[in-house]
Amino acid sequence: MQKVYLILGVYINLFISTLSYSFAYDLSLADRYEISIIERLIIDSVQKENPYVYVYSENKNKKKFFKQKIKKFAKNIKLTSKLHKADFIIVLDMKKRKILKKPALALDFEAVRYCLNCIGVFSWKNGRPNLTLFKENLEKLMIKLPEEYSYFIE
């Protein structure tokens, strides 16, 4: 009889754990989703099928980790270690004003203040992705995005 209760208890725990599982907690899925959004925006911004992307960060570990995510999940963008070769820049963090001379996307609201060529910011809030694009910078860099981005442009 104890075996029956033990087996029943195991099955009940498995059932409860499957009910409480959420894809929001699956970091791999969130990373894949983040990279696919960023990748699509980059391709639409530079209007190039396989653009070169430079990852800018003042923190080497943060930069290395993000590059690994891109290598793992991105299909159509190529990483470059040379800023002048890049078609687009992803800014992870920035503490001083810089003109990067290429279109850039910040992944941090603090970095947007210092990045003068950022066309927007992508971040996560309450487990949801948020994209905000800046109309003035898009026009300054002569970037025309498809109509589907109009909801995100301020």
What does the secondary structure layout of this molecule look like, with pairings?
Layout: H1 2-20, H2 27-46, E1 52-56, H3 60-73, E2 78-79, E3 88-91, E4 104-106, H4 109-114, E5 118-125, E6 128-133, H5 135-140
Parallel strand pairs: 1-2, 1-3, 3-4, 4-5
Antiparallel strand pairs: 5-6
Helix pairs in contact: 2-3
What does this structure look like?
- The protein is of the alpha/beta class and 154 residues long.
- The protein has one domain: Rossmann fold (3-Layer(aba) Sandwich), CATH 3.40.50.
- Helix content is 42%, strand content 18%.
- It has helices spanning 2-20, 27-46, 60-73, 109-114, 135-140; strands at residues 52-56, 78-79, 88-91, 104-106, 118-125, 128-133.
- A six-stranded mixed sheet has the order 2-1-3-4-5-6.
- It is globular.
- It starts with a helix and ends in a 14-residue tail after the last helix.
